[in-house]
Amino acid sequence: MKEIAVNGCRECDHLSMRSRIAEALANYCHCFDGGDYDGLRNIFADAASIELGQSFSGSLDEFVLWATEQRRLGRQYSHHVTNMVVEENERGDAVSSISAVSALVASDDAKIPSRLVHGIYTDSWVRSGSSWRIRKRAYRPRITANLSG
């Protein structure tokens, strides 16, 4: 890890970065699950590329349209992100993270989850002012389970 002192505390800067990235990941879950598409746009860089396994692959604008369609079809999601690991390159100019994500999926009429999906997000981050935004997201599915019987 490159030693860069901002306000005299390299470790403080690293912890601040990790905290902001963890908050952005949590906000992603809340925004996607709650249908806050403007909020989603604030989590990703304008030119972001997003790949979600076989479900979706495209730009940020296309992702927002896809997420809107999921909601219109009555799909409700409850995302949970854990086990986050953040890494910087030696120069300190590139940041990436991996995190585990689980989501319960329910249809609007059932209100009871019918599917559980679990996988890994691999994200590349870019600094935007005092915040961090996802430049590239790749999702690798690990578990998909039907819960409805």
Describe this structure in words.
This protein is of the alpha+beta class. It has a single domain, classed as Roll (Nuclear Transport Factor 2, Chain: A). 30% of the residues lie in helices and 47% in strands. It has a six-stranded mixed sheet with strand order 2-1-6-5-4-3. A hairpin with a 3-residue loop joins strand 1 and strand 2 (56-59). Helix 1 packs antiparallel against helix 2. The chain starts with 9 loop residues before the first helix and ends with a strand.
Write the layout of secondary structure elements.
Layout: H1 10-34, H2 37-43, E1 44-52, E2 56-59, H3 60-72, E3 75-88, E4 95-107, E5 115-128, E6 131-146
Helix pairs in contact: 1-2
